[in-house]
Design brief:
Bound molecules: 1-O-phosphono-alpha-D-glucopyranose, zinc ion
Strand content: 25-35%
CATH superfamily of the largest domain: Alpha-D-Glucose-1,6-Bisphosphate, subunit A, domain 3
Structural class: alpha/beta
Number of helices: 18
CATH architecture of the largest domain: 3-Layer(aba) Sandwich
CATH topology of the largest domain: Alpha-D-Glucose-1,6-Bisphosphate, Chain A, domain 3
CATH class of the largest domain: Alpha Beta
Distance between the termini: 54 Å
Shape: globular
């Protein structure tokens, strides 16, 4: 085997976003494209000679080829060892778990999350650092700079390696260990949750359905729910990961997880339903004919955390992204816990967790997690809910009703306007900013406006400042209207409008969220002129 320095065409700068580099498969298939990016990562992450790299992905089309390329390049670049999931599989939270468990230098995760998969769809690659979390901006910027100048990459010339059998072998002086992608993650889950209590719950006639949406969580959910916890075979639906995710869009929300939603709202609805996304980091929680918003889910987990063995000594603090509802703030206040409000994106939670300031965190976009790993974790949230249900022996709906009785209800909804003209989108936000001085003190949607601002965040751990993270209209009673532009959309601009209103009165907790928020929705339209500017009379997606 020989190590080769392959000279490559000049490579246009490729800036990895917060979720790594995401492009069409056909882009990744261009000669030297993936190689140039991987070499740019290796050139930007410091001295890893002899160290361990973790590699795995969500199983989508091009996953296997990419892993072969990465293994050969890791060997040529001097890694001592690569841990790779069998069949190339590692969910995002499992990769984070494995990086931490084995003290790896870092990991490369191949995924484009919930984006559709297949030859004409998306692929992605993301570097995570030794704490198991996404690379911080300093690293991704260094990678970007490197992509603009890179002229060659290192690889070894050899046959493809066998990813399908657990075991270890040598690749040009580097150890490759093909590991069970589920085992370490499952053991971590078992250390956090009361598996005996959940097993008894599932044996008692409690029924549940988990939809893996033909993506990576199938093998994890089958091993843990049906294997270790004894749920009946068939509990895990769409559990075979497919290279094209079965042609679907594995994003666990009311729109895309419609099969599960239909089941949970049907005649023979199970007691509990859950789904996860392409790479296993998102989750949706449903009760029988009942949807738990991700913001409420985070609040319920925080309020009930000590029911799970892994959190029985209490939690150190909580964090939520700014647009996530303030339901968890009320729980934190009543428990005397610190509550941090961060910009959108998981990377902001890592510093807080590394510093021991928060244990639980979450986003309204179906992401919930804790300091057990440094990624959001779909199946973890499902097991946490099962643990709570097993101890409290109440329905999901009853748990929420009880929660709202204690803390009040934060009615919440997100309206997405996808693929709108970028200039119009910018104008929508500017229209709200233009009223920053005039709105405070006036009444809007029957509430008094307290203040308006562009959200800015100073990281309490490293002092870094992130500005312009969303335009906010904040009301005296805690209600909020927020406008943000998506940072992950691929065509045009996506405006996200987040609406929240607080209701203390228990008699008013049973409303439909859209009805409860109708005045807020109208007020948001009025101050922003969103609809005339974008030419859209309704959102593309409502959650
Ligand atoms: C979206 C979500 C955000 C999440 C991100 C990555 O980003 O809103 O909460 O962290 O995907 O999963 P956005 O498109 O809003 O920038
Ligand atoms: Zn994901």
């Amino acid at each position: 085997m020989q190590i080769e320095a392959v000279s490559s065409r000049p490579f246009e700068g490729q800036r990895p976003g917060t979720s790594g580099l995401r492009k069409k498969v056909t882009v990744f298939q261009q000669p030297h494209y993936l190689e140039n990016f991987v070499q740019s990562v290796f050139d930007s992450i410091g001295d890893f000679a002899g160290q361990t790299l973790v590699v795995g992905g969500d199983g989508r089309y091009f996953n296997r080829q990419a892993i072969q390329t990465i293994l050969k390049m890791a060997a040529a670049n001097g890694f001592g060892k690569v841990l790779v999931g069998q069949g190339g599989i590692l969910s995002t939270p499992a990769a984070s778990c494995v990086i931490r468990q084995y003290g790896a230098y870092g990991g490369l995760i191949l995924s484009a999350s919930h984006n559709p998969a297949g030859p004409d769809d998306d692929f992605g690659i993301k570097y995570n650092i030794g704490n198991g979390g996404p690379a911080p901006e300093g690293v991704t910027e260094a990678v970007y700079d490197r992509t603009r100048e890179i002229a060659s990459y290192q690889t070894v010339v050899c046959d493809d390696v066998d990813l399908d059998h657990i075991g270890a072998f040598d690749l040009a002086g580097m150890r490759v260990q093909v590991i069970d992608p589920v085992a370490d993650y499952a053991a971590l889950m078992q250390s956090l949750f009361d598996f005996d209590a959940i097993r008894s719950l599932l044996a008692s006639g409690f029924s549940m359905a988990f939809d893996a949406m033909h993506a990576v969580t199938g093998p994890y959910a089958k091993a843990i729910l049906e294997g270790m916890l004894g749920a009946p075979a068939g509990t895990v639906r769409n559990g075979e990961p497919k290279e094209d995710f079965g042609g679907g869009h594995p994003d666990p929300n009311l729109t895309y997880a419609h099969e599960l939603v239909a089941l949970l709202y049907g005649d023979d609805a199970p007691d509990f339903g859950a789904a996860s996304d392409g790479d296993g980091d998102r989750n949706m929680i449903l009760g029988s004919r009942f949807f738990v918003t991700p913001s409420d889910s985070l609040a319920v987990l925080a309020a009930n955390a000590t029911l799970a063995p892994g959190y029985s000594n209490g939690i150190s603090g909580v964090a939520r992204s700014m647009p996530t509802s303030a339901a968890v703030d009320r729980v934190a206040a009543s428990m005397g816990l610190d509550c941090y409000e961060t910009p959108t994106g998981w990377k902001f939670f890592g510093n807080l967790m590394d510093a021991g300031r928060v244990t639980l965190c979450g986003e309204e976009s179906f992401g919930t997690g804790s300091d057990h790993v440094r990624e959001k974790d779909g199946l973890w949230a499902v097991l946490f809910w099962l643990n709570i249900l097993a101890v409290r022996k109440q329905s999901v709906q009853a748990i929420l009703a009880d929660h709202w009785r204690k803390f009040g209800r934060n009615y919440y909804s997100r309206h997405d306007y996808e693929g709108v003209d970028s200039a119009a989108a910018a104008q929508v936000l500017q229209n709200v900013r233009d009223q920053f001085l005039a709105l405070p003190g006036t009444n809007l949607a029957g509430r008094r406006v307290a203040c308006c601002d562009d959200f800015s965040y100073t990281d309490p751990v490293d002092g870094s400042v992130s500005e312009n993270q969303g335009v906010r209209v904040l009301f005296e009673d805690g209600s909020r209207i927020i406008f943000r532009l998506s940072g992950t959309g691929t065509s045009g601009a996506t405006i996200r409008l987040y609406l929240e209103s607080y209701e203390a009165d228990q008699a008013k907790h049973g409303m439909d969220a859209q009805d409860a928020l109708a005045d807020m929705i109208a007020a948001a339209g009025k101050v922003s002129q969103l609809q005339p500017l974008t030419g859209r009379n309704q959102p593309t997606v409502i959650t």
